[in-house]
Amino acid sequence: MTKYFSPAAWLIIVAASCTRPAENKEQQTDTPQDHCYQYVSPEDSIHLSMRTKGDSITGSLSIYPREKDRNTGTFKGAFRGDTLLADYTFMSEGVISVRQVIFLRKEDMLLEGYGETDSLGRFTDLNAIRFIPETPLKITDCPPLDD
After folding, report:
1. Which 3 state secondary structure label does DSSP give 8?
2. CA atoms within 13 A on the CB side of 89
3. Where are the domains of the chain?
4. In this predicted model, what pLDDT tens digit does every residue of 90-104 receive, in sequence order?
5. Does this model's pTM top 0.85?
């Protein structure tokens, strides 16, 4: 004897299977995820800690360049595909400043990008950004960030 499902039963099965992945995706993106990256050489170091929650990225960035004053601060931004674009508020030489930062995610590292900026520290042309492979920030273990 052959058994058949009614068209209404198939409709219910298909509708139920279509909604489950969306619910799982929503749950995954609402869970905060912490990531840390660093670049260390004998002359320079860069440390970046970030928390991803949904589309929002927040974190801290410390840059210790050779023969220059260090700058440390916080950033807030978002990924656009594999590119993190954020506003970085930092202190350097006793002065608080804000500028945009941009990083390209490649496998398990971030490459910092450089380009022309306006008087407010914002990139004037995102298509002209140069990502520097010589100072890759490699993923590393980090303690959880505070909420």
Report:
1. helix
2. 6
3. 33-140
4. 998 889 999 999 999
5. no
